[in-house]
Design goal:
The chain is 45% helix and 23% strand. It contains 31 helices and 32 strands. Strand 30, helix 30 and strand 31 form a beta-alpha-beta unit. The radius of gyration is 50 Å and the shape is elongated. It binds ligand C2E and magnesium ion (MG) (2 copies). Ligand C2E binds next to strand 19, helix 16, helix 17 and strand 23. One magnesium ion (MG) binds next to strand 23.
């Protein structure tokens, strides 16, 4: 920006001599100046405050206030610092000139004046003063800008050996501007010793002609605090000669701190503060390099907490997090200073042991780590007993890179877990082959579904009352090209681990329901379909939503779908599981517990879950004919399940002997090679068409003895009841007339009678009262609307009615009550005691009440 003088500069002439004032006016006005006059110092000051002149011509010798004093006072006024003040002195009056300049005058003109030159002289003065004002403005704003940018600059002029520091530079260095000369030596003294050589080198380089440098270093203040600076400098040449060195320092402490924080976060686990995978990998490569140099061993330990998911699911995530922090603290205590404890995520930790003399030392540390878990963890009000499994790999034997060491330690961990937790395993080569196979299967499994390599086989389930097939279990098969059929045990655990079981399970459910729909359509409408469901599916998606959707898509009635659950599911977060299971029950599907007896749950633990069927694991069935234990365990499972109103299915029945045992002990149904292996869909079709069933002497032996009598004066109610109960294999008698009912009972061994409450010819209560007298062993059920509850209370109290079921009934509850009533009838018959419906029997009202 060019310094500009104002268009018509205003000049204030201060002189007590009127003549001088007139002469000045006459000399300047024609040259484009505006003139104001003051005849003394006070008047001048007054005018200055009002009129802001561009220049002041001031006589030094005036009565009252002298020109010197007036000049000094003007300089102190706001805006007075920069206005050019020219004093009028006598010729050769050196003392006055000196005094005027000391008082702040910008220039002087000696009297008598050269009038011709006056205008030129003033114009020149105005121009240079405006340039000075501009310069000071620029310097000011540079100072502000430097302060804002936390940037200071320095210069060192070689010709004079002098230097300059901007005020901001002093501030950055923690110095006052007056503290000393602006030399490079002083700057160097502000750099902490460890970095001085680096800064000095750069500076010397500049001297020697490197042109420029840029580096980051710290500076230390007098109080010991430190700042980070970015330091740039360059050499300036003129005519080939080095004349000037100059540089800037920017205070980047805050940015640096943020960078350090970001770096910390990128390298540490937020929950425990331990190094994360990033930093672990860094450290691994460093210590591998060191181990190569020193020839010492190093060991990589991969740890996984046993049953951590159980803690998270049962106590909630805050306790899970607190546990991980506590584990991190204990692990740090188990190792030496130079070792690394890292967390890779979840409950997986890694420990790097460096500078080990031999394998034994690693083993000692592993033992120490295990011992850290002996004491329980006290978290709030919870006392948790935890254990860990550890896989160990060693450098160089088990891998020569961090990646391979972690992989081999992982394989060893996998094998430790397999061995049964709370233990450790050192890697050996056999584990490697296993891991490779796993990786191979995992890769192929990813594509199996898309390529149509998965299919379902179906295994019939046979009802032991009727000997007939009542349903199927869908079992997954993987036809792997080039390898053949892979059994589910080989790939389902892996699919569960990787989460692939979720899409696979979805496919299984849809395919099985679609197949069941097809069988229903071809006339086998009584069939049910059981589908195995994994815990992971419950955890990852809403099973009730999926089941609703699949039922709607396939058109299969809910009561024909059975979900086979595992005991491990019931050990999960109970509230969530119970909620999902209850929702599934509301939808109407049957819930069964697979492989019962292999887990830890007792039957009484199962009471809190809405389980309908218990499938007794094949390991028990295998033993029933030749081991007392197997036989008595199986017997008691059947008896206890009955007492909890659950039905029983025996799995893996292979021999006639096993079947006989199950018949005698009144297991409800069987599944196993004895009747049929799992078969492809087309083979099942043939089996169904052929009407294949167990011969009646292989059943409970008295299928016809389960005779059910239905009495209702409305035909449509009778047929609705028959429809519901048909598939339970009863011999069903029915009549609309109470009198005829009594006749039928005389001819047939009726086990259970279900009677309407209100009938034209005879009230239900009356009919059941008579039945009680004539056939006390027959179990009597009353079917009626809520409104008639009062009228039957008496009959209930007399014991004439064993159960009371409300209309409209729930099919499943009705079926279960009738099944249960038959069991009661049969138990009574076995004891050959008087019939079950004694007066002392408390009447039960169905589940809807
Ligand atoms: P599971 O649900 O207990 O199924 C019964 C297993 O016993 C089946 O093995 C069946 O072929 C076998 N089996 C049936 N009768 C006999 C017999 O008389 N003797 C012997 N020794 N074995 C018999 P499979 O098909 O190999 O299935 C194994 C397990 O894989 C199943 O056990 C089930 O837990 C799981 N699984 C199968 N399909 C699926 C599925 O679609 N989803 C899930 N999550 N798991 C499945
Ligand atoms: Mg199953
Ligand atoms: Mg099973």
């Amino acid at each position: 920006m060019n310094p500009q003088i104002p268009p018509e500069p205003l000049v204030l002439v201060v002189d007590d001599d009127v003549m001088t004032r007139i002469l000045v006016t006459e000399a300047l006005e024609p040259e484009g100046f505006r003139i104001e006059e003051a005849d003394g110092g006070l008047e001048a000051i007054e005018f200055f405050q009002r009129g802001s002149p561009d220049l002041i011509l001031l006589d030094v010798t005036m009565p009252g206030m002298s020109g010197f004093e007036c000049c000094e006072r003007l300089r102190r006024l706001p805006g007075g610092a920069h206005v050019p003040i020219v004093v009028l002195t006598g010729n050769d009056d050196d003392a006055s000139i000196k005094e005027a300049l000391e008082a702040g005058a910008s220039d002087f003109i000696a009297k008598p004046m050269q009038w011709r030159l006056l205008a030129h002289r003033l114009r020149y003065l105005l121009r240079s003063s405006s340039a000075l004002a501009e310069l000071s403005r620029i310097r000011d704003s540079l100072g502000h800008a430097q302060a804002l940018a936390r940037l200071g600059n320095w210069e060192y002029r070689l010709s004079t050996g002098t230097g300059y520091w901007s005020p901001q530079l002093s501030r950055i260095l923690g110095q006052t501007p007056e503290a000393g000369p602006a030399t490079f030596d002083r700057l160097l003294l502000c750099v902490p010793e460890d970095q001085r050589p680096q800064v000095l080198d750069a500076f010397m380089g500049l001297h020697a002609g490197t042109g420029s440098y840029a580096l980051e270093h710290r500076v230390r203040h007098g109080d010991g605090s430190e700042r980070h600076v970015f330091h740039q400098a360059e050499a300036v040449h003129e005519a080939g000669r080095l004349v000037l060195l100059r540089g800037t320092l920017q205070d980047i402490t805050e940015r640096k701190q943020q960078e350090l924080r970001i770096e910390y976060l990128a390298n540490h686990d937020a929950l425990t503060g331990l190094p994360n995978r990033n930093l672990l990998n860094d450290r691994l490569s460093q210590i591998i390099a060191r181990a190569r140099r020193t020839g010492l061993h190093l060991a990589t330990l991969v740890l996984d907490l046993d049953r951590f998911k159980f803690v998270n699911d049962s106590y909630g995530h805050p306790i899970g997090d607190a546990l991980l922090q506590a584990v991190a603290d204990r692990l740090k205590m188990a190792v030496r200073e130079g070792d690394t404890v890292a967390r890779l995520g979840g409950d997986e930790f890694v420990i790097l042991l460096t500078d080990l003399a031999d394998t034994q030392t690693a083993e000692d540390v592993v033992q120490k780590v295990l011992s850290m878990f002996v004491d329980p963890f006290l978290l709030g009000e919870h006392t948790l007993h935890m254990s860990t499994s550890i896989g160990v790999s060693e450098f160089p034997a088990d891998g020569d890179s961090g990646e391979i060491l972690l992989k081999t330690a992982d394989a060893a961990l996998y094998s430790a877990k397999d061995k049964g937790r709370n233990c450790y395993q050192f890697y050996n080569h056999k584990m490697g082959a296993l891991m490779e196979e796993r990786a191979d299967i995992e890769h192929a499994l990813h594509q199996a579904m898309a390529r149509g390599e998965l299919e379902l086989h179906y295994q019939p389930k046979v009802d032991l009352n009727s000997g007939k097939i009542y349903g199927m279990e869908a079992l997954l098969r993987w036809r792997r090209p080039g390898i053949g059929q892979v059994p589910p045990d080989r790939f389902i655990p892996l699919a569960e681990e990787t989460g692939l079981i979720v899409p696979i399970g979805d496919w299984v459910l849809r395919t099985a329901c679609a197949q069941l729909g097809a069988w229903h359509a071809s006339g086998f409408s009584h069939l049910t379909m059981a589908v195995n469901v994994s815990v992971r599916q419950f955890r990852q998606i809403s099973m009730p939503d999926l089941v609703r959707e699949v039922l709607a898509d396939s058109g299969v009635p809910a009561q024909c779908l059975e979900l086979e659950l595992t005991e491990s599911l019931l050990m999960q977060n109970q509230e969530l599981v119970v909620r999902d299971l209850n929702q599934l029950k509301e939808i109407g599907v049957t819930l069964s517990l697979d492989d019962f007896g292999t887990g830890y749950s007792s039957l009484s633990y199962l009471k809190q879950f809405p389980i309908d069927v218990v499938k007794i694991d094949q390991s028990f069935i295998r033993d029933v004919t030749d081991s007392v234990d197997g036989a008595s365990l199986t017997k008691s499972i059947i008896a206890m399940a009955k007492s909890l109103n659950m039905s029983t299915v025996a799995e893996g029945v292979e021999t006639e002997g096993q079947l006989g045992f199950l018949n005698t002990n009144r297991c409800d149904a069987i599944q196993g090679y004895y009747f049929s292996r799992p078969l492809a869909q087309s083979e099942i079709g043939e089996l169904l068409q052929a009407g294949t069933r167990l011969p009646s002497d292989s059943c409970h032996g008295e299928p016809q003895q389960r005779v059910l009598l239905l009495v209702d004066d409305e035909d449509n109610i009778l047929s609705a009841l028959q429809r519901v109960l048909r598939r339970d294999g009863y011999r069903i008698l029915s009549t609309t007339k109470p009198q005829e009912a009594l006749e039928l009972m005389a001819i047939h061994p009726v086990g259970v009678i279900v009677s309407d409450a209100r009938m034209r010819d005879m009230a239900g209560t009356e009919l059941l009262r008579r039945v009680k007298g004539l056939h006390p062993e027959t179990v009597r059920i009353m079917l009626s609307g809520y409104t008639e509850l009062n009228s039957v209370t008496e009959a209930i109290n007399e014991g004439a009615v064993y159960k009371f079921i409300t209309k409209p009934w729930n099919d499943e509850i009705l079926r279960e009550h009738i099944r249960e009533s038959f069991r009661r009838y049969e138990a009574g018959a076995q004891r050959s005691e008087p019939g079950p419906a004694q007066a002392s029997d408390a009447a039960a009202i169905d589940g809807a009440v």
